[in-house]
Structure formats: structure tokens, C-alpha cells
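Hi L., both proteins are below.
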Amino acid sequence: MHRIETVTVQDSPMEVFLFEPEGEGPHPGIVLAQHIPVGHTGIENDTFTLKAAERFAENGFAVAAPFIFHWWPKEAEMGLKRDEFRDDWTVLDLQASYDLLAAQANVDSNRIGIVGHCWGGRVSWLGACHNPEYKACAVFYGGRIKLPLGPGTPPAIDLAGNINCPVIGLFGNEDENPSPADVDDLAAALSAAGVPHTFHRYDGAGHAFQNFPSEEKYRHEASEDAWDKVLAFLNKTLN
């Protein structure tokens, strides 16, 4: 079960889907950055993000999943939203989501991490670069981390030195965005910045290998292993 709260970010209303685990808490929290599936108009139609949030909640984490594409009409083409995406707007979205989650009575504000898949994997990296209060960051096959998005913003990889928490990365070796060479560059940036990190790479898996609604992309064995690893990481860093 979840509920939806609306926060205002620079005069634009943003829906945040909140998922609560059982028990009184206080619980550790996760800001979950959604992926960018073709054709979806909102988180309410995004089966993968809803199920991922539910699974985290079932494992004891309070979850806030913001609709970071609120800057455009829901019916607008996703290609337009992707092309006009701005990191400066997204940083504001993530901070508003973090503040909302941290203010919940059943959430321990000192134990909040950020997680994202695909486009959201890049967003989770970005969020950790701009909020030193995160205690954990998980990047599932985040592409375009080496690119700037929006006017006057640096490539997200260049901000690695701002990350103040451990990072886990989960990638498919058949992915092209990020490619294995891109993943090497991400690891090198974290190493150069002294950021503790662990990357897991899966043979026979490409991009979005956890995306079960897509039979073409989903790889069950890799997905379940990645779930085990990310939950163990979050339990260690947030509990």
C-alpha cells in the first residue's frame, strides 16, 4: 500500500509516492528515483517502480518515489522530457523528496539512502553528489552519468568527489549505456575521489535486466542476485 503526497518545487506540483513498511519504526528510508519506460505518463502507470518500491518496503524500508518528470505535462512525449531534462531541476526534486521522507514520523532521518534504476540510476548518483546527508547510494545500470544534462551543469561523473556515502553499482556486461568501459570510468572516478564503492557486473545481462515487465530485457537470475546484493548493502549501511 502507498499514499501520494504533493510537494511544490518552484511553483510546479510534484507527486511523491510514499510506501511504509510494517511496524512502528523508526525505519530507514530510501528515495527511489524512477526509470524512464517508454510510454508511461506517471508513477501510477509504472509497474516496475511501484513493485520495486513495494519490495523495498517489504524489507523494512520507508520509500519516497518522486515523479521527477512533473515539469512537463504527463501526456507529453517521453522523448521530449528526456531531451529537455535538467540536473538543476532534478536536484531540487530530490531535495524536496528527501525532506518529505525525513519528516515522516516513522522514518529515521539519519538513515536515508538513494536508489535508482536506468535513468534513475543516473539520478541516484546525481542526488548523492548534491546531498551529503545520504548514507547510501545504489546505481542500477545508470547511463549518461558521463554527460551533462541541462544548461550550465557539469557531467555528473565530475561530481563524484562530492559523494559522502558508500556506493553500490549493478551493471550488465551486455549493456551499451553504460557500456563496460563506462562502468570502468565510473569506478575510476569513485576511486580517485576516495568514495567507498562496490560494483557487480553480470554476464548475459544487458540494460534494464531487472525490468520484469520487459521479457526481452529481464534476466531473472541476475535480477534476483542484484536484489540480494542491494538489500544486503542497504541493511549494512542504513541499519
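That was the first. Here is the second:
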Amino acid sequence: MKYEGNIKKMRLVYASPIKYLLSIGEQELNMNSILNKQLQIKYQHKINCINCGAETNKSFHQGYCYSCFMSVPQCDVGVLRPELDMSHKGISRDMEWAKKNSLVDHYVYIAITSGIKVGVTRHTQIPTRWIDQGAIKAIRFAKTPHRNLAGQIEVDLKQYVSDKTNWSKMLKSKQTDLSLAKIKSELAEKLSPNFKTYLSFNNNIETFSYPFEYQIDTFNTVGFDNTDIITGKLIGIKGQYLIFENGDVFNIRKHNGYLVSIEIQ
């Protein structure tokens, strides 16, 4: 069976385990259904911007051409660093976009990915954001009316916990005895008094399982910067990573907009 088209990050269905659907051209491929099958992904030497569709020699910000990277609100500095989002002051690349994406309720959360991490996401991205990061547990820490304020709280917490995920440790992480409720309580005590009014009373802990049951000691990232063909037996999926039997790991999100052919044996 063969598919061909531009790929985009996998769509998620919250289930146990998580269900993954890969967009390739006009089709969607159920990735869970091809686990434990031999897979060949071949790069067709073409990248199209996921925003405007223009052909580009290089992908910026995981899928954009340079023009869109420099102009569209999805690539503004406040996306990667929420504390720098200025839409609450009327400053944005696109205020209509900001009204729907930045000037809405945001959550600061605590998750267990490669370890304990703090992050920010708008309310409509729960639980997608957590699953994309490969979290095995997550809890809401604070709720704010706009992105900048959530970013300020995240910065305050970064002196105690990381805002980064180590991808290889995340792939190995499966279970934990860490109590997110206890961690949330301890961090709440350390939080700047200016932010305590935004603490979330929602202490529900979300848990996630992924279609990846194997134990692999060493992972190796593979991508189209170094090779045209990625092949192997697909044994797992976690976050936006495809995991092969030989330990190779392919980051789908990094290759947004790449034209590929996928052959399943």
C-alpha cells in the first residue's frame, strides 16, 4: 500500500492508547493500524508552506516559508515565548487572530514528560498540547484571561522547574510515582503573590498512554536533512514521533509540509 502527498503533524484522538492520524495530501492514514509493519518514507525533494502552499527550499518554524514566517501571527515571538505576547496591549501581527488565539483563556500546566515541566497552552488545546509533548500526566496549575499573563506565571515557575522536554527521556518515560497534586501545591506556595489569584482550583490529573510498549535503550533521530529514505519496522508512536525497531525516531512535526511517499509492507 502506498500514499503520497505533503505531510502535516498527526491529528490526535484522546483514547487509551492515543490514536494517531497522519495527514498526507488529501488522505488521512491511521498510524495505529500500521504498527509492527515495515514502513518506508521517501522524501520527494519538495516542501510546501503549510500556510500559503508556496514551494520553499527551507522550512521555518516547523512548516512555513520565510515570507509567512516573518508575517503570520502563528510565527510571532509570543507563540514560542508567551510572556512576550503583546496582544493584550493591542499589538499583534493580526489582531483578529489574536482575539481568537491569544486573548482567550490560557492555562499554565504542570506535566510529566521527560521529567517535571511547566508549560502554557490556550484552553482549546487541552489535552492536545499535552499529548503532543508526550506527557504521561498533566494538571492545570493556573488559569489566565490572556497569553501574556500565563507566560509571566510560567517564567516565575521556571526558576523551580524546567519548561523544556528532553525528547529521548520522554520516549523512555512510561510510568511514574510522582504526585502532580503535591508538586502543584508546593509550586503554588512558591508562586509570586501577584499571581496567586490565578491559581486553578481544577486538580484533576489527566493521564495518557501511548501505542509504544517496547523498551529501547538508545534512540537515533532521523530526518530528511541527512537522508532521502527512512525505513524500518514501526513499533511505536509518542508525542509527534514515529519510533522504529532499530531505535530510529522520526519527528513528524519537524517535517510539516514535506512531500513524501509512504509505502507500507
